[in-house]
Protein backbone atom coordinates (compact mmCIF):
# COMPACT_ATOMS: atom_id res chain seq x y z
CA UNK A 1 0.00 0.00 0.00
CA UNK A 2 1.34 3.43 -0.96
CA UNK A 3 1.40 6.09 1.76
CA UNK A 4 1.90 9.88 1.87
CA UNK A 5 2.92 11.51 5.16
CA UNK A 6 1.62 15.05 5.78
CA UNK A 7 3.04 17.06 8.70
CA UNK A 8 4.55 20.53 8.94
CA UNK A 9 7.35 19.17 11.16
CA UNK A 10 10.10 17.41 9.15
CA UNK A 11 11.20 15.38 12.18
CA UNK A 12 7.68 14.02 12.63
CA UNK A 13 7.50 13.03 8.95
CA UNK A 14 10.90 11.36 9.10
CA UNK A 15 9.98 9.42 12.24
CA UNK A 16 6.89 7.93 10.59
CA UNK A 17 8.92 7.07 7.52
CA UNK A 18 11.53 5.28 9.66
CA UNK A 19 8.79 3.29 11.41
CA UNK A 20 7.54 2.04 8.05
CA UNK A 21 10.92 1.59 6.40
CA UNK A 22 11.17 -2.18 6.89
CA UNK A 23 7.46 -2.97 6.45
CA UNK A 24 7.06 -4.82 3.17
CA UNK A 25 3.32 -4.15 2.90
CA UNK A 26 3.68 -0.36 3.03
CA UNK A 27 5.71 2.10 0.98
CA UNK A 28 6.05 5.82 1.71
CA UNK A 29 5.87 7.44 -1.72
CA UNK A 30 5.89 11.07 -0.64
CA UNK A 31 5.83 13.71 2.08
CA UNK A 32 4.02 17.03 2.35
CA UNK A 33 4.24 19.92 4.80
CA UNK A 34 0.74 21.40 4.40
CA UNK A 35 -2.70 20.81 2.94
CA UNK A 36 -1.88 22.33 -0.44
CA UNK A 37 1.19 20.13 -0.88
CA UNK A 38 -0.84 17.15 0.33
CA UNK A 39 -3.49 17.61 -2.34
CA UNK A 40 -0.87 18.04 -5.07
CA UNK A 41 0.96 14.90 -3.88
CA UNK A 42 -2.23 12.84 -3.80
CA UNK A 43 -3.12 13.89 -7.33
CA UNK A 44 0.39 13.10 -8.58
CA UNK A 45 1.20 9.93 -6.61
CA UNK A 46 -2.24 8.34 -6.13
CA UNK A 47 -1.62 6.83 -2.65
CA UNK A 48 -3.83 4.33 -0.87
CA UNK A 49 -3.42 6.00 2.54
CA UNK A 50 -2.57 9.48 3.86
CA UNK A 51 -1.08 9.94 7.35
CA UNK A 52 -2.25 13.44 8.24
CA UNK A 53 -1.40 15.91 11.00
CA UNK A 54 -4.15 18.29 12.17
CA UNK A 55 -2.36 21.48 13.24
CA UNK A 56 -0.55 22.88 10.20
CA UNK A 57 -0.08 26.32 8.61
CA UNK A 58 -2.89 27.30 6.25
CA UNK A 59 -5.71 24.78 5.97
CA UNK A 60 -5.58 22.37 8.89
CA UNK A 61 -5.72 18.61 8.65
CA UNK A 62 -9.50 18.45 9.06
CA UNK A 63 -9.97 20.80 6.11
CA UNK A 64 -7.44 18.79 4.11
CA UNK A 65 -9.36 15.58 4.90
CA UNK A 66 -12.57 17.18 3.63
CA UNK A 67 -10.85 18.09 0.36
CA UNK A 68 -9.43 14.59 0.00
CA UNK A 69 -12.80 13.04 0.76
CA UNK A 70 -14.36 14.99 -2.10
CA UNK A 71 -12.05 13.30 -4.62
CA UNK A 72 -13.22 10.47 -6.82
CA UNK A 73 -11.84 7.26 -5.22
CA UNK A 74 -10.24 9.10 -2.24
CA UNK A 75 -7.37 7.65 -0.20
CA UNK A 76 -7.93 6.47 3.35
CA UNK A 77 -7.01 9.13 5.96
CA UNK A 78 -5.36 8.40 9.30
CA UNK A 79 -4.72 11.34 11.63
CA UNK A 80 -1.42 11.50 13.54
CA UNK A 81 -1.58 14.42 15.98
CA UNK A 82 -0.43 15.66 19.37
CA UNK A 83 -3.96 16.74 20.31
CA UNK A 84 -6.77 14.46 21.45
CA UNK A 85 -9.64 17.00 21.37
CA UNK A 86 -10.22 16.62 17.62
CA UNK A 87 -11.07 12.90 17.61
CA UNK A 88 -14.82 13.37 17.06
CA UNK A 89 -14.19 15.93 14.33
CA UNK A 90 -11.76 13.52 12.69
CA UNK A 91 -14.32 10.78 12.35
CA UNK A 92 -16.87 13.25 11.02
CA UNK A 93 -14.63 13.55 7.95
CA UNK A 94 -14.49 9.73 7.63
CA UNK A 95 -10.98 9.22 8.98
CA UNK A 96 -9.97 5.58 9.28
CA UNK A 97 -7.96 6.18 12.45
CA UNK A 98 -6.69 8.69 15.01
CA UNK A 99 -3.24 8.29 16.59
CA UNK A 100 -1.63 10.48 19.23
CA UNK A 101 2.02 11.49 18.97
CA UNK A 102 4.49 10.07 19.62
CA UNK A 103 3.04 7.40 17.37
CA UNK A 104 3.72 3.83 18.48
CA UNK A 105 4.66 1.36 15.77
CA UNK A 106 2.26 -1.36 16.90
CA UNK A 107 -0.72 1.00 16.94
CA UNK A 108 0.21 2.47 13.55
CA UNK A 109 0.51 -0.96 11.93
CA UNK A 110 -2.80 -2.04 13.44
CA UNK A 111 -4.65 0.96 12.01
CA UNK A 112 -2.89 0.62 8.66
CA UNK A 113 -3.98 -3.00 8.45
CA UNK A 114 -7.59 -2.05 9.13
CA UNK A 115 -7.44 0.81 6.62
CA UNK A 116 -5.93 -1.54 4.06
CA UNK A 117 -8.92 -3.87 4.37
CA UNK A 118 -11.32 -0.95 3.94
CA UNK A 119 -9.64 0.41 0.81
CA UNK A 120 -9.66 -3.03 -0.82
CA UNK A 121 -13.34 -3.49 -0.02
CA UNK A 122 -14.16 -0.03 -1.38
CA UNK A 123 -12.31 -0.75 -4.60
CA UNK A 124 -14.13 -4.06 -5.07
CA UNK A 125 -17.44 -2.28 -4.48
CA UNK A 126 -16.60 0.40 -7.02
CA UNK A 127 -15.63 -2.25 -9.57
CA UNK A 128 -18.91 -4.10 -9.03
CA UNK A 129 -20.87 -0.86 -9.36
CA UNK A 130 -18.97 -0.12 -12.54
CA UNK A 131 -19.89 -3.49 -14.03
CA UNK A 132 -23.54 -2.97 -13.15
CA UNK A 133 -23.53 0.53 -14.58
CA UNK A 134 -21.91 -0.66 -17.78
CA UNK A 135 -24.36 -3.51 -18.15
CA UNK A 136 -27.28 -1.09 -17.98
CA UNK A 137 -25.77 1.71 -20.07
CA UNK A 138 -26.59 2.36 -23.71
CA UNK A 139 -23.91 3.30 -26.23
CA UNK A 140 -23.52 6.75 -24.66
CA UNK A 141 -22.56 9.98 -26.32
CA UNK A 142 -20.36 10.07 -29.39
CA UNK A 143 -18.79 13.48 -28.72
CA UNK A 144 -17.39 15.59 -25.87
CA UNK A 145 -18.30 19.29 -25.91
CA UNK A 146 -15.88 22.03 -24.88
CA UNK A 147 -16.20 25.79 -24.67
CA UNK A 148 -13.32 27.43 -26.52
CA UNK A 149 -12.53 30.83 -27.99
CA UNK A 150 -14.18 29.63 -31.19
CA UNK A 151 -17.39 28.73 -29.37
CA UNK A 152 -18.54 25.19 -28.57
CA UNK A 153 -16.15 22.56 -29.95
CA UNK A 154 -17.24 18.95 -30.43
CA UNK A 155 -14.56 16.28 -29.95
CA UNK A 156 -15.35 12.80 -31.25
CA UNK A 157 -14.93 10.09 -28.61
CA UNK A 158 -13.23 7.95 -31.26
CA UNK A 159 -10.49 10.59 -31.64
CA UNK A 160 -9.58 10.74 -27.92
CA UNK A 161 -6.39 9.24 -26.50
CA UNK A 162 -6.97 10.02 -22.81
CA UNK A 163 -8.29 12.46 -20.23
CA UNK A 164 -6.01 13.98 -17.56
CA UNK A 165 -7.03 16.01 -14.51
CA UNK A 166 -5.21 18.38 -12.24
CA UNK A 167 -6.82 19.94 -9.16
CA UNK A 168 -9.10 22.27 -11.16
CA UNK A 169 -9.35 21.19 -14.78
CA UNK A 170 -9.65 18.17 -17.06
CA UNK A 171 -7.75 18.15 -20.35
CA UNK A 172 -8.75 15.87 -23.20
CA UNK A 173 -5.88 14.74 -25.43
CA UNK A 174 -7.17 13.91 -28.90
CA UNK A 175 -6.12 13.70 -32.53
CA UNK A 176 -6.72 17.42 -32.96
CA UNK A 177 -4.62 18.53 -29.96
CA UNK A 178 -5.43 19.33 -26.33
CA UNK A 179 -8.64 20.91 -25.03
CA UNK A 180 -9.88 21.89 -21.56
CA UNK A 181 -13.36 20.60 -20.74
CA UNK A 182 -15.89 21.13 -17.95
CA UNK A 183 -16.57 17.46 -17.20
CA UNK A 184 -15.00 15.79 -14.17
CA UNK A 185 -13.16 12.49 -14.45
CA UNK A 186 -15.85 10.82 -12.37
CA UNK A 187 -18.58 12.01 -14.73
CA UNK A 188 -16.56 10.83 -17.72
CA UNK A 189 -15.83 7.44 -16.15
CA UNK A 190 -19.50 6.93 -15.28
CA UNK A 191 -20.73 7.85 -18.74
CA UNK A 192 -18.05 6.40 -21.00
CA UNK A 193 -17.89 3.12 -19.13
CA UNK A 194 -15.80 0.31 -20.56
CA UNK A 195 -14.54 2.38 -23.49
CA UNK A 196 -12.10 4.09 -21.08
CA UNK A 197 -10.11 2.70 -18.17
CA UNK A 198 -8.69 4.50 -15.14
CA UNK A 199 -4.91 4.15 -14.91
CA UNK A 200 -4.34 6.80 -12.25
CA UNK A 201 -6.41 8.96 -9.95
CA UNK A 202 -5.98 11.73 -12.52
CA UNK A 203 -6.16 9.83 -15.82
CA UNK A 204 -8.60 7.86 -17.99
CA UNK A 205 -7.28 6.29 -21.19
CA UNK A 206 -9.12 5.02 -24.26
CA UNK A 207 -8.98 1.23 -24.00
CA UNK A 208 -8.89 0.71 -27.76
CA UNK A 209 -5.75 2.89 -27.95
CA UNK A 210 -3.76 0.89 -25.39
CA UNK A 211 -0.86 -1.01 -26.93
CA UNK A 212 1.21 -1.96 -23.87
CA UNK A 213 2.16 -1.12 -20.30
CA UNK A 214 5.85 -0.92 -19.43
CA UNK A 215 8.21 0.70 -16.94
CA UNK A 216 10.06 3.89 -17.86
CA UNK A 217 13.59 4.89 -16.86
CA UNK A 218 12.32 6.20 -13.52
CA UNK A 219 10.73 2.85 -12.67
CA UNK A 220 7.14 4.05 -13.17
CA UNK A 221 4.60 2.15 -15.23
CA UNK A 222 3.47 3.95 -18.37
CA UNK A 223 0.84 3.23 -21.00
CA UNK A 224 1.83 3.23 -24.68
CA UNK A 225 -1.08 4.51 -26.77
CA UNK A 226 -1.57 4.09 -30.50
CA UNK A 227 -1.37 7.34 -32.46
CA UNK A 228 0.41 9.52 -29.88
CA UNK A 229 3.76 9.90 -28.16
CA UNK A 230 2.05 10.77 -24.86
CA UNK A 231 2.70 8.15 -22.17
CA UNK A 232 0.25 8.48 -19.25
CA UNK A 233 1.68 7.22 -15.96
CA UNK A 234 -0.01 4.24 -14.31
CA UNK A 235 -0.15 4.37 -10.52
CA UNK A 236 0.84 1.28 -8.56
CA UNK A 237 -2.64 0.92 -7.12
CA UNK A 238 -4.11 0.61 -10.64
CA UNK A 239 -1.27 -1.34 -12.28
CA UNK A 240 -2.37 -4.84 -11.24
CA UNK A 241 -5.98 -4.30 -12.33
CA UNK A 242 -4.84 -2.86 -15.65
CA UNK A 243 -2.40 -5.72 -16.24
CA UNK A 244 -5.20 -8.22 -15.64
CA UNK A 245 -7.49 -6.31 -17.99
CA UNK A 246 -4.87 -6.25 -20.76
CA UNK A 247 -4.42 -10.01 -20.57
CA UNK A 248 -8.12 -10.43 -21.39
CA UNK A 249 -8.04 -8.18 -24.47
TrEMBL record:
Residues 124-143 are annotated as: Disordered. Residues 144-248 form the HTH LytTR-type domain. One of its GO terms (molecular function) is DNA binding. InterPro entries: CheY-like_superfamily, LytR-like, LytTR_DNA-bd_dom, Sig_transdc_resp-reg_receiver. Residues 2-116 form the Response regulatory domain. PROSITE patterns: HTH_LYTTR (PS50930), RESPONSE_REGULATORY (PS50110). The modification 4-aspartylphosphate is found at residue 53. It comes from the Bacteria. Residues 124-136 have a biased composition (Polar residues). Keywords: Phosphoprotein, Two-component regulatory system. This is Response regulator transcription factor. It comes from Pseudomaricurvus hydrocarbonicus.
Amino acid sequence: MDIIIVDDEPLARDRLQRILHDEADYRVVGQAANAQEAMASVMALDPDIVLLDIHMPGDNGLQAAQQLGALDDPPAVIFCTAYDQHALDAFSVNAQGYLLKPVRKDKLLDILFRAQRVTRAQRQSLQQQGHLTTANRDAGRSHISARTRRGVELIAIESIFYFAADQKYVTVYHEGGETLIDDTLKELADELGDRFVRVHRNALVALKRVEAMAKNAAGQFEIRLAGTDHRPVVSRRHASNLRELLTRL
